[in-house]
Design a protein that fits this description.
about 230 residues, six-stranded mixed beta sheet, about 20% strand
Amino acid sequence: MAAAQASAPPPLLVDKVRFGWGGGRPALNGCSLRLPRPGLWMLVGSNGSGKSTLLRLIAGLLSSESGRITATSKPALVFQNPDHQLLLPSCGSDLQLGMPAGLSHEQRQARVELALERVGLSGMALRPIHTLSGGQKQRLAIAGALAGDAGLLLLDEPTALLDPTSQQEVLQLIRRLCSRSEAPLTALWITHRLEELDLCDGAVVMEKGQIGPWQPGPDLRRRLTPLPQGRAKR
């Protein structure tokens, strides 16, 4: 297994990417990042350092001015606020939005049930989304990525608006999905909660559109002072 992982291409490669919003300092200036293997990888940095911009470039929502981004599986962005991406009335109907075309009704239903099961929401296909808790909505957003065949999850402070119990549930869910023996997922997770670094496979600091070297999460947590809370600048 280790030898196979060593010879496989990295799940994500960002090579000398540049992007600017127009005027002033570029948001990303020759930014490079390599995820070594499937797993849970975390990115920390001050507001305005370029973290959210980077995720949107990887997801294909923005186009870089130069450089290249290569992913070996489909990326899916999970927003800080799940209400910004849950669009239809029920859990099951929303999950079908991102599914591949050409599936039969039975195949679509099977995907809905499997995705809900994987995030701990079994039997909730008909449940109205407005009745869900914040943590359940975030897990449903993750289920939507799974139902759409995403293998690279891009999570932009996914626990920022959740209560402590839901924060742990979402973090542990992603940890499990990235640690499966078969077809593990890859996740790139932006966080301001330094305690979350203890569960990642590696962490990096982003400053002024540049990314530092990978470090063990607990080591980075000990080195960093607490970062200010609040929404990151886009």
